[in-house]
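Project outcomes to date are best conveyed with an example. Our students and postdoctoral researchers have been running inverse folding experiments weekly, and each run begins with a structure described purely in tokens. The record below, which covers 251 residues, was selected by the lab manager from last quarter's runs and is presented without edits.
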């Protein structure tokens, strides 16, 4: 172990303090910091042969939890994407990677940069919030609308995978196609889908649930209004009223 610790000291020009925290577990106090100025926690643990493990013993996620919880599937997906992109593994919060004496310097730099990125996940809120609209829509349909036998990502026109509806309900003899709309691009796509379904002489109802209708450009919501059968102005509006509208379709 002394050999690898000496190499770390040399690689960092002796600008690193190394402290044995428990037998065989050494903490590296490196001049590498999170955005708020706190030093990044990294430990090195000997494994078999000439192998070692760099890890944080859960410090990165614990530190993040003070201001930002990984409490939804979408946030977990973002975390897993960071881990996969950096070839890291996570075991009960401990984020780690294997290293050896040849690659120790580059591996330390690599894993500490990944820790810094994970520690900054709270700044990803815009991406998370935008995706949460669909996550929350999915969760509501999965838990509250199963009586209407929803199907996800359906293709009403065979072979036209560019005209996908987010959901299909079958309250009676004809389908209700639902589109989630959070921005101008999705509004345009929902409009085109409804137009194409009509051109194909499909017997259907086209519904839209907006994340926030007031945020759409005027031309987009006008086109939606002219070409779909029902719009819910927000997700909350959808949650409150959709069962009543689906029940009316049954009659």
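After processing, the design step wrote out the following sequence:
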């Amino acid at each position: 172990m002394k050999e690898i610790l000496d190499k770390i000291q040399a690689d960092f020009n002796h600008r690193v303090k190394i402290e044995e925290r428990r037998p065989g577990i050494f903490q590296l106090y490196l001049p590498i910091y999170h955005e708020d100025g706190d030093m990044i926690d990294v430990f090195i643990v000997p494994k078999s042969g000439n192998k070692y493990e760099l890890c944080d013993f859960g410090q990165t996620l614990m530190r993040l939890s003070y201001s930002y919880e990984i409490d939804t599937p979408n946030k977990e997906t973002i975390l897993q994407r960071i881990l996969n992109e950096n070839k890291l593994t996570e075991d009960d919060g401990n984020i780690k990677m294997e290293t050896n004496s040849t690659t120790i310097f580059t591996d330390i730099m690599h894993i500490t940069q990944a820790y810094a990125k994970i520690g900054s996940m709270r700044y990803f809120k815009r991406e998370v919030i935008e995706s949460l609209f669909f996550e929350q829509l999915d969760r509501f349909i999965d838990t509250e609308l199963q009586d209407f036998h929803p199907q996800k990502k359906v293709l009403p026109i065979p072979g036209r995978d560019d005209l996908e509806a987010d959901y299909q309900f079958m309250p009676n003899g004809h389908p209700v196609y639902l589109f989630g709309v959070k921005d101008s691009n999705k509004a345009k796509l929902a409009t085109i889908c409804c137009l194409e379904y009509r051109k194909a002489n499909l017997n259907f109802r086209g519904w839209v649930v907006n994340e926030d209708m007031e945020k759409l450009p005027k031309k987009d919501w006008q086109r939606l209004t002219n070409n779909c059968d029902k719009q819910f102005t927000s997700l909350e509006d959808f949650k409150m009223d959709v069962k009543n509208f689906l029940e009316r379709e049954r009659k």
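The chain has two domains: 2-119, 129-250. The radius of gyration is 26 Å. The training component of this project remains on track.
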